[in-house]
Design a protein that fits this description.
Blueprint: E1 11-17, E2 23-27, E3 32-38, E4 44-50, E5 63-70, E6 77-86, E7 88-91, E8 99-105, E9 128-131, H1 137-150, E10 158-159, E11 178-181, H2 186-195, E12 200-205, E13 208-212, E14 237-239, E15 242-245, E16 252-256, E17 262-266, E18 278-282, H3 289-302, E19 307-314, E20 332-336, E21 342-355, E22 360-367, H4 369-384
Parallel strand pairs: 10-13, 16-18
Antiparallel strand pairs: 1-2, 1-5, 3-4, 3-21, 4-8, 5-6, 7-8, 9-11, 12-13, 14-19, 15-19, 16-17, 19-22, 20-21, 21-22
Helix pairs in contact: 1-2, 3-4
Amino acid sequence: MNVKGATVPFDIRLIAVDPNGDRRGLLAHPMHIQVAFPFNDIPSLKFSYSMNAPGADMISTPCEIGLQWSSDGSTWFEFSEGRFLLIQRQGDQIDQAGVWQFDCPSYLWVLQKAVTFANASIEPTNGQRVFNATATSGFIMQTLLNDAVNRGALTGFSWTFNSSTDSSAAAWGNPMAMGIPLGTDLLAVLLRLVSYGLIDFRMTGARQLSAYMPNTTLLRDFSTGASPVALRAGRDVTAAPDVATLEDMASAAYVVGDNNIRQEVVNVGAVMPWGRWEVGVREVGITSTTSANNIGTTVVLRGVQQHVQRTREITMYQARHLPLRDYRAGDMILAPGDGGGLEPMRVRQITLTRSARGVVAGNLILADRREDYQLRVGRQIAALSARP
């Protein structure tokens, strides 16, 4: 749709595809589309469609949905993270309009249907499959994926990394011993590795997973140089709401681990408006005072920071820089920060919507340096509490 005054007729559309197969056709009459692309997490798609509309027969049986975008209205591209599984729908059987709502997770969701088995030659420890201290995130994921494929699971799924190198051919680093409870699905394992700060990932094809060393390939910096991606108020950004909270503030942490480990850590120099605030931390797997002290230290350092969620409403019709085309989740861009001035921020999530009239809108969730710091602290806590 070309809105009056628009400089770029950005649009999105949906394609139905056979399971692990070929294109069925265009879903030309969606009543509403909402798609979210979070960084290091699972993309999701919601849409509504009348079962009386042309094309409804293509989504009456299990299928995949591909999300395509165009910035000129004629050339269309399927976004590399835009393949979804049509596995949930709801509607009213006596509704004359026949409108059904569809919730579709990313194709990556199939990793929930492959679980962690015991190693054929190594006995589990406390019900866990144990990887020793030399295991990297790539080695762990490659091992579990290969095991699943050998059992006949994950048909059609592929990946571009191996146990030695990531998807950019960089050597894996940051090994860490960990135990994975038997029966844990592989998507949960992948997200656990993300929480430890050991891996970044994204889908780079309809059914293809790529994974990288953290803060390398997927940290594209478009905030500097002669032509930065700068989202300016009034042109690219129509609203810039922030939600700030002091709920996580604390100057003292009481860490409780295994084997009667109890450790108090106090941030003596912290400025607390209401005096000493305490937080309790129960971490299964902590068996030393040193680790407990490290966790307590990271918690109280995080406790002096206010948490800010930064949402930026974006327009597609006057914008110079467009999502999916010019930037994606994980990238560094310039956007309005405190006081509305441009600041370097990392895109944490892109959400797009399309109405029945074809009007496309969207918003971004951004992280500034403070939030990136809090994320690093959270990863330190997760890594310290990993039980081998």
